[in-house]
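Researcher: Structure for this, please.
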Amino acid sequence: MGFEVRRGRGVAQGPKKLVRERAEYFRLVDQGYSNRAASRRVGVNERTGREWRNGRPAGRVKRSRPAARKVLLAEASSRFLSEDERIVIADRRRARASIRVIAVELGRSASTVSREIRRNAHPGSGDYRPHAAQARADARRPRPKGGKLAANPELRAVVQGWLGLEWSPEQISRSLRRTYADSPEMQVSHETIYQALYVQGRGELRRELTAALRTGRTYRKPHRRPDQRQPRFTTPMIMISDRPAEVEDRAVPGHWEGDLIIGKDGSSQIGTLVERATRYVLLVHLPGNRDAETVRDALLATAATLPTHLKRSLTWDQGAEMALHHQFSLAADLPVYFCDPHSPWQRGSNENTNGLLRQYFPKGTDLSVHTTDHLAAIAARLNGRPRKTLDWETPAERLAKLLATAS
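Model: Predicted structure, token format:
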């Protein structure tokens, strides 16, 4: 150790302040030593160590009472663990409570408690001591901090070498953990590598190395949260969460799900409509393209063939082909509801039917060659096929039965 005790044990020191011993004592406590161990290492009585740490008891007034040691920090945010919470963690750990139980009692996530114990436990014994843990957290908190890559030339050289081999930051991070398993100073997260590449002013990695990344971007592209996305269409969408409750139980016919199946090179398409209660299928002829005007007109022509009591709602995904949904809704008197992004299961009947249709319209084929009559024949074939989900009735039979009951 860098500190050597030069006093004999039990020798009175009089009014000496023991400045060096006091500083060494607190250094040891910050590392996780107990009061007894730290006091023995610096050669003072355990009571002296307690007084250095906690202040002199009020009843002892022979000498002026030294102030208790405090870390001068701004009041900690609630997002950080407090010293009281760390005391609870230590007490519950001694009682052998699980991390999840401790997290519930503190109102914190289990990962927060697990990370706290891992980062701030004693580096040697692994014991968790709350006051030492608080001291470590306080010492780690001041900002700004220097970047790890800037402070470690060897680590920076390894990372730059692997980036030059066109490794991704995550591949580099994982490889560092395996290669330098016993050297934490040679390990770094993939996010730190991205920060060193993209954040201006840091200069921790050569900026030209961004060309080795798979995206090749010279700047970072932010990902918006779902609640921050730009509106998909100029006219507000009515989301599936606002769809009438009667749609869910499939008891009332007239609620449809729609989508497009796409052909070779994305240059041809067929519209598909599936009635939720009966799985009855209608195919929409789209021989030209799938711009909003073409899809609107084709859907209007198909909706015109339906009786009024079979036009209750249409659920679609947020594809650009439905940009004129408001015009279709007004002209067809058929409200359109939109699924959440990346949620195809919200149109489950339609997705299932599109899979069945691929038997007749394989992927990678030109769908524009199919005529209106051919599409009607394929729809009739599916509508005449018994379905397990309908107790082995056909969609045509189930639709006829529901219409007869309604009439």
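Researcher: Any notable elements?
Model: Confidence is low (pLDDT under 50) at residues 6-12, 61-75. DSSP finds 16 helices and five strands in the chain.
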